[in-house]
Amino acid sequence: MSNSSKIYDFVVVGAGIAGSCTAYFLSKKTKNILIVDKNSTFTNGASGAAGAFLNPILGKPNDFKDLVTKALEFSVDFYSLNLSNLTNFSEFISTSGTLRVATDDEDFEKFCSYEEFIDFDYEKRDEGYFFPIGSMVNATKVCETLLENINQKYDYEVKTLQKKDDFWLINDEIKTKNIVLTTGANIKLIEEEYVNIRPVWGQKINVLTSTKTDFNYHKECSISVSTAYNDKYKLSIGATHNRFKDDMSDTLYNLDLKDINDTQPNQKTMDIVNSDTKKLIDLANDIIKLDDIEIIDFKIGARAASFDYFPIVGKLVDSKKTIENHPHILNGSHIKKDKLSMIDNLYIINGVGGRGYVLSPYLAKVLVESIFDGVELNENISSHRLFRRWAKRLKGKNR
Questions:
Q1: Residues 376 and 343 in one domain
Q2: CB atoms within 10 A of CB 82
Q3: The pLDDT of residue 303
Q4: Among candidate residues 43, 18, 55, 45, the one with its CA nearest the CA of residue 222
């Protein structure tokens, strides 16, 4: 064990957008924070491969749509207000709007049926609906800005977590009173079976084209607003959705690898990349014809998807202790929230899926409010819902 006597108030594990936002909001309460990541810098995982679009949901009211609406309202203001004093503000967030394009006439009719439920200003167009609030952020520059006053440690893989007296011990050397896990699709640090996160691998490509785009588009893929680049325009296209059933450990589609987008891909990886690149270009051209396309680069990453699409925020239920204290759970009995045993001083933000840049600022804010101000988390984003469903399935099984 290290002889270091320093004990942090919080260590955030994972320096993607969720971790960066969490560290930022925690820094408003305490300066004794450390953020760590196995990669060589921030946003070197899924957050760096994301399109980082901020778009509303089009559909009938439901709990998930309500969550995204609240998060979008908050996050657009958050990015704008926290970055608006920068001289190069336009490089951090583009607020050019998004055109949501219908796939066909039937889809357009469905869009029209949702009009009364639209939460944001819009313009109805022949292709679909244009939302002025639609935006895109520069992932790397945003996270760099959020973390500029926070202690950071990279090339550091967390292998062990141990609760010792009143603090957590990371890798038998870093002491902290509290831990926040924002590790995305890689959940090997979480020993609770009910936390079931599925990796959905996505690819984004950056291209040069002679076609100018004045705003973002979204149909079966997303196309970003373009920026002038020499005598062409630069834009991003994303993203694919791959759920691999085969063993992918011999490719870059491996959650245990670090710096995957700075690692030379093998042929098996490139076969998938080339196939997905063609798919993205075909889907983009179905939205707007892009001429003289030249591929600049690609990025891949695994979105962290929960089974019900809702994120997971807050403390984790200690399933072993809860079942020991309330064995009737195994008979299918309901248990009240205040009877659940929680893992002390261990928090999580995960399962943000493909809306990480919309959800993360809002979720980080509500997590910090729950920790410091006792604000109760919505049941839809707590670990309670996952534990209850998992425990219900244990009925009649031997543990």
A1: yes
A2: 16
A3: 96
A4: 55
122 torsion bin: left (phi>0), alpha (psi -120 to 50), beta (else): beta
Cβ-proximal residues to 306 (8 Å cutoff; 6+ apart), any chain: 196, 197, 198, 312, 350, 351, 353, 386
Find residue 33's DSSP bridge partners.
Answer: 10
Q: What is the pLDDT of residues 19-46, one digit of tens each?
A: 999 999 999 999 999 999 999 999 988 9
Q: Which residues neighbour 83 within 8 Å (Cβ) at sequence distance 6 or greater? A: 89, 92, 93, 142, 145
Q: 100 and 133 in contact (C-beta within 8 Å)? A: no
Q: Are residues 252 and 385 in the same domain?
A: no
Residue 102 lies in a domain: no
Confirm if 248 and 271 have CB atoms less than 8 A apart: no
Looking at the structure, do residues 42 and 175 belong to the same domain, yes or no?
Answer: yes
User: Do residue 313 and residue 370 come from a single domain?
Assistant: yes
Question: β-strand 98-101 against 128-131: which pairing, if any?
Answer: antiparallel
The token pair at 331 is 């008979």
Cis peptide upstream of residue 49 (ω within 30 degrees of 0): no
Supply the range of the domain harboring residue 353.
Answer: 1-52+138-196+307-399
Distance CA 255, CA 55 (A): 27
CA dihedral 153, 306, 189, 158 (to 10 degrees): -10
Count of structural domains within the chain:
2
Q: Are residues 253 and 323 in the same domain?
A: no
Tell me the two tokens of residue 152: 């950071």
**Against a cut of 0.85, is the pTM above it?**
yes
